[in-house]
Write a structure and sequence with these properties.
The complex is a heterodimer of chains A (about 325) and B (about 350).
Chain A (H helix, E strand, L loop, with lengths): L1 E6 L2 H5 L1 H4 L10 H8 L6 H20 L3 E7 L10 H14 L2 E8 L3 H17 L4 E5 L1 H10 L4 E4 L30 H13 L9 H6 L4 E5 L15 E6 L1 E6 L4 H4 L21 E5 L8 E4 L2 E5 L16 E4 L6
Parallel strand pairs in A: 1-2, 1-12, 2-3, 3-4, 4-5, 5-6, 6-7, 7-12
Antiparallel strand pairs in A: 8-11, 10-11
Chain B lengths: L1 E6 L5 H10 L3 E4 L4 H7 L19 H13 L3 E6 L9 H14 L3 E4 L2 H9 L6 E3 L8 H10 L2 E5 L6 H9 L7 E5 L23 H7 L2 E5 L5 H10 L10 H10 L20 H8 L7 H7 L3 E4 L5 H16 L5 H8 L2 H5 L12
Helix pairs in contact in B: 1-3
Classes of the chains: A alpha/beta (about 325), B alpha/beta (about 350).
């Protein structure tokens, strides 16, 4: 299995040593821990950093794994797409480490952002014409096939529409099922729904051959409580999973941007964003869910809890783990 | 420009006739047959409206009568099969549904899943395709990707594009024969539809409801040395309780300058016109002021979704039609139709940012 590490911008990448530094928070007395984390959803990112390291470090030690690939780029916010010079610096950082490089492009890009992405791909083609690129927008994919045919395309997690099951999180919990006009036994209905959610459109026999013909080499997914039904041949695609942060939903309107301009909480505007997310974060407190949820910028993330265990103990077969020391925004 | 109205399981042929009289020219509807419900329930839905019976037709004869009624009155109707992701096991049932739909001769299909589009091609379905917002075509290249592969007649433009971004995308597609449709009132998801991997269910409040009713908190990022401080807290607990301790200095640095308060999107009470919160419940979000600029850039279709909201549909159709038919609708005219000054004053109730409004 390959281990990749993912950073969304160069500033975070330069803090990699700090990001991988493990601290055992359970050894800090509660009254002091509150002084640091004060039960604030916005700090779930930092708590998640050290919690995930407690899972990652034994995995790496037991399986003799080390990072061999850098994922770099911005999936969720077009305003935060790194400039070409950052792509270049990140590329050289990965080379210095002896790692492979994957450039991650953004999802659902408006026309001007598509041009920004093109400039980054042009820079990447100068550096490594056969680089691996994660695409999260069909327009980016079309542009890659036409203008950068030597890049290795990986379908990103935004285009992969697996249901994230966030309303229930743990499959052991009772699902919110409407029984309106339905006679089927609850347990059977629940089982059928979970099986349906495990079955993704990549398995569609009318679709998969096109992905192969288009040269798609792999697919990146989020870990979900229900898991994913993958055939014996693994679709003949390399499969990667992001850990510890899965995304539930994202938007172009943004609560953090809404702290400067209230309308941005709900509406997209042409005027450039003041990027207050570089200083602070605005997240809802969603205490009704068992699993930590946090909104970073315009995106709602979930910290993968115990249901991630099969991805660490060998039960689930996959080829790449993409470790996110921090939420990639 | 014309209006496309969503139909739900409680919309009868008589009601549809009334919608047409009030200005609706086109409709869309979803269908979930009994055998599907008895296997998957509502939550695994072929068309993104899994909230129960009012949102979908579930009896083939009723749907057939609805299609006939629309056609008899000179209207058009498209069927929505726009789930984002259809696993392979569901394909057999979906194939059966399309075979049924074809006998009803709808005017087109609204689809979001590229895999299903390839299956429809394999099944020999040649009826025009409307690309659902669930496809997420935000740029001209992505629209072309689908036009390269399928008989696309219309693009339903995602809700979270500005009018300028729509124009740029449409300018890049001027050589293609495409229709453009926008959502204009109600059902503006908090998250992007195409980017929401949650599940709707009538059995609990949905994720979007959780978000807009939750208390928000704004917090400065932790200073970069937070792990160093955490280790001191572990190793030198008592020493950290003093005024000049690193922990105290850390907290002071962290909290300053204080972040702004969380966004407050409540609507002030007023005795003028319709209460603002009530207007928000009725209209949810409103894009009336955007109709003229959208018409100016070449948008042809206004979507009034409202599947499952038959109680307010007639009134909203009338309001949208009034603005749509007017050669030069002003913001004042739109506000008069909504009749809730406080609702309109709070710009976050707008569907789109209209700089001139």
């Amino acid at each position: 299995m390959e281990l990749a590490i993912y950073f969304a911008n160069y500033e975070r990448l330069t803090e990699i040593d700090q990001a991988l530094h493990a601290v055992d928070l359970t050894e800090i007395p509660g009254y002091l821990s509150v002084a640091l984390f004060q039960l604030d959803p916005n700090l779930t990112d930092d708590v998640g950093n050290v919690t995930a390291l407690k899972w990652m470090n034994p995995l790496m030690a037991q399986q003799g794994l080390d990072f061999t690939r850098l994922y770099f780029g911005q999936e969720f916010c077009q305003n935060l797409t790194p400039p070409p010079e950052e792509v270049e610096m990140a590329y050289y950082f990965s080379r210095q480490q002896g790692w492979q490089f994957t450039y991650v492009t953004g999802g659902y890009l408006a026309e001007p952002s598509l041009e920004v992405t093109r400039r980054n791909l042009e820079k990447l083609a100068e550096l490594e014409p056969t680089a691996e690129v994660v695409f999260n927008d069909w327009g980016v994919f079309r542009m890659m096939r036409r203008d950068f045919p030597d890049f290795v395309p990986i379908m990103g997690r935004i285009l992969n529409k697996q249901t994230r099951l966030n309303l229930f999180t743990e499959t052991g919990d009772e699902l919110p099922i409407s029984r309106d006009s339905i006679n089927l036994d609850f347990e059977e209905l629940r089982r059928n729904q979970i099986e349906a959610y495990r079955d993704v459109n990549i398995s569609n026999p009318d679709y998969l051959p096109h992905l192969h013909a288009w040269g798609v080499r792999g697919i990146d997914m989020d870990i979900t409580p229900q898991g994913v039904e993958r055939p014996e041949d693994g679709w003949n695609l390399q499969l990667g999973f992001y850990y510890p942060w899965g995304f539930i939903a994202t938007a172009r309107n943004c609560p953090t941007a809404g702290t400067l301009d209230l309308t941005r909480m709900f509406i997209v505007k042409d005027k450039s964003c003041g990027k207050p997310c570089r200083k602070y974060n605005c997240s809802p407190n969603l205490l009704q869910f068992d699993t930590p949820l946090v909104m970073r910028g315009p995106t709602l993330f979930v910290f993968h809890a115990d249901y991630a265990a099969p991805y660490f103990n060998g039960q689930v077969k996959y080829e790449r783990l993409i470790y996110q020391p921090y939420i990639p925004l | 420009m014309f209006m496309n109205v969503g139909l739900g399981g409680l919309d009868t042929p008589d009601m549809i006739t009334e919608y047409i009289r009030r200005g609706a020219e086109e409709f869309f509807a979803g269908f979930i047959p009994r055998e599907w419900l008895e296997k998957y329930g509502w939550e695994v839905c072929p068309n993104r409206r899994p909230m129960g019976a009012p949102y979908n037709y579930s009896q083939a004869p009723v749907l057939r009568e609805v299609v006939q009624t629309v056609h008899e009155h000179g209207g058009r109707i498209n069927l929505a099969v726009n789930a984002h992701d259809n696993g392979s096991e569901r394909l057999a049932m979906l194939h059966d549904q399309f075979n049924l739909f074809e006998t009803m001769e709808p005017d087109g299909y609204i689809v979001a899943d590229p895999a299903l589009l390839f299956s429809m091609k394999a099944w020999g379905i040649e009826r025009p395709i409307h690309l659902s917002t669930g496809v997420g075509c935000f740029n001209s290249e992505s629209v072309r990707f689908f036009c390269d592969n399928f008989p696309i007649r219309r693009l339903i433009i995602p809700r979270k594009l500005t009018i300028r971004e729509m124009r740029l995308m449409m300018d890049g597609l001027s050589d293609l024969d495409l229709e453009y449709e926008v959502m204009i009132i109600g059902y503006r998801c908090f998250f992007n539809d195409e980017d929401c991997h949650s599940v709707h269910s009538a059995a609990r409040r949905n994720l979007c409801g959780d978000i807009i009713t939750a208390p928000f908190k704004v917090t400065n990022h932790l200073p970069k040395n937070w792990k160093e401080i955490a280790e001191r807290m572990r190793d030198k607990r008592t020493a950290e309780l003093h005024e000049d301790s690193p922990l105290n200095r850390f907290r002071q640095e962290w909290q300053l300058p204080p972040p702004p308060p969380p966004p407050d999107f409540s609507i002030p009470p007023s005795t003028e016109g319709l209460d603002g919160e009530l207007a928000r419940i009725v209209f949810q979000t409103c894009g009336l002021c955007a109709i003229k600029p959208m018409r100016d850039i070449g948008i042809q279709v206004l979507k009034v979704p409202l599947r499952g909201d038959e109680g307010i549909k007639s009134r909203i159709i009338t309001i949208v039609n009034t603005v749509m038919q007017h050669p030069n609708p002003t913001r004042e005219m739109c506000m008069e139709l909504i009749n809730s000054p406080e609702f309109c004053r709070a710009k976050y109730n707008c569907y789109y940012h209209v700089p001139e409004a």
